[in-house]
Amino acid sequence: MAQRQGGRGGKRFQKGQRENSDIVIDYSRSDFAPDDVVNFLKNELHNENLNIIHQSTFHGFLCLSVSKEDGTSIIRLNGRSFNNVPLFIAQVAFGRLRENVKNVLEFIRAKIQSGNTIDLSNLREGNFPLNMNYFGDVIFTCFCAGVVARRDHLRIQKVNFDDNGLKNASALSYIKTYLPNIEEISLRNNPLDPNEKVLQNLKNSRIRIITDTKNSNNRKHIQSNDDNSDDDDDSSDGNNESNSDDNSEGYDDSENDSSDGYDQNNESDGGYENDYDNNNDESGNNNYSDNNDSDGYDQDDDEENNSSEDSPDSDDLRAGDDEYHQAAPSRNYRELDFTPAPSQIKNNHNAELTPFLDAYIDACRAPSGHDDLIDFYADDAVFSLTFLKASSGSPISLLFPDNRNILHGARAPQINGADKVVSFIREKFKGGFALEGAKYEISLVSGQFFAVTMSGTVAIEKDGATQEYGCTKSLVVIGVRRRLVIANEHMFLRIPTGH
Asked: Where is this region: Disordered (predicted)?
């Protein structure tokens, strides 16, 4: 196969000669066998004869080399749930993966701010090993950001891509798959068309897209679905719509052709092929359809540019959306998004929280009622458990073989998700989690959440007999959408009462 040398990435292949696709899959769990993932792909694709030219693992990833057609099909499974874990899939040449992935992951970790924001702005001025002018490098960056967030148990809500020279928004097609909690993407000072279909899809999935109109006379803000402006209706329903479709359906080689001879579609160790075709899965359904409703986030309120002229709505926006979310005192009210908001629950926390905790204790006592108890936990609640050293034959050791004993043995991972938390409690305390004689103390922490310490006794059954243990629970209770939920729970079991 004829080769040519280029400025980046080593080997290059002549156009039309690349036949295989290198696919990288992150499946999060070390106890999953790679062959199980491969069999899952075959089942999902209804293709038992999936031709895998090469299979290996590297840095916790499953690496597959397949035909170009199979690669396109596999990419469409991005985000598909395998044993309750979404698969992260990207097309990355193996040579480029081996060369860069460790440095990219470490770089992204260093750019995390406040636990929920990744600042990837102006990467050309740093030591970032990838080139954000390249379509595939942007995809690889989003993939690695998702891997870091998942492996480090982070809830990333904002990503800043300002000043990176991004030209094709299609590279962001799967960012919501990689970062499922994302709420805002900043794209200031990038030569992007804000009307691209991918950005519209992201906006419709309730993600704030922050752009600007600098250095462009044609660029416009993304319009909300219920915008009644005559001028905007004309542009969004006409030529701009067709332009955005063309731009998001495929990658234009000429647009990103560089002087170093880089061939975007045909590269062995550094190239990527644009098989990310507008987020459509094999059935033709758009991956954003679950969140694509007409009641989405109004992008116009967040897309105000840096003009010295105030819009008629400026004063209202600066005043804040409601009594719990006041805007920053700035002429540019984008800063509203970075203003800490007080708790959505009023400061009279005893009146608010006492009925919630009493109802929670009642729900714990019920032998069944999984659905009732689950309503007390946040969707992403975290649960952990600790107990003192106990003999191997004690009821508590037999009940919790996967214990988090702080003195001996490997610690079991935390339990994440309301479903798993409640399932764990119901499995371990089949007769009902009766927190008898419960007493609790409530503290308001920084106006953001409540810390609750709860103590009492619980009953553990063994061989038909019941043994009571002392129990202390630490709860973090927050306000979400005007209701209280438990975001974090830690249980400490003490020695049996009377011993």
From this structure: 213-321
